[in-house]
Design a protein that fits this description.
With 136 residues, the protein is an alpha+beta fold. The protein contains 4 helices and 6 strands, in the order βββααβαββα.
Amino acid sequence: MGIFAKLKRKKNQERAIVTSEKYVIELTVLDKENIVKYIPTIKRYFDFSIGEIRKNALEESPIITCHFTEKPEDLIKLSSLLRELKAKGANLKIVENINDTIVDEISINIIDNLIQRRKEIDEEADEMWDLEIEEV
């Protein structure tokens, strides 16, 4: 069973993502002593309070939980954030979590593959929709 499914009635209607699993990617900053240095970068991509980011980092909890099946645009923001944090020397842990169970630690390459896969699915869905419209 795939993660993505499309529901679309009109060409300009936003797609709804349907999944039976709760699939998220979590980002944890491991070098919590440097979290203050990373906060401005994190806030540029995600709207969390400084206190929330700092608290999660100090507790070694995920600072970002990306529900990308619900908000696929967050995956692109996460990828950009990871690159910036890595450039600043951040020590990061990225894990995939399905139904509140950590499945595996993943790399930014996996995230980039998910983004590419999502784009391909969107293109195929658009092509199928266009074919359905032409048949009517």
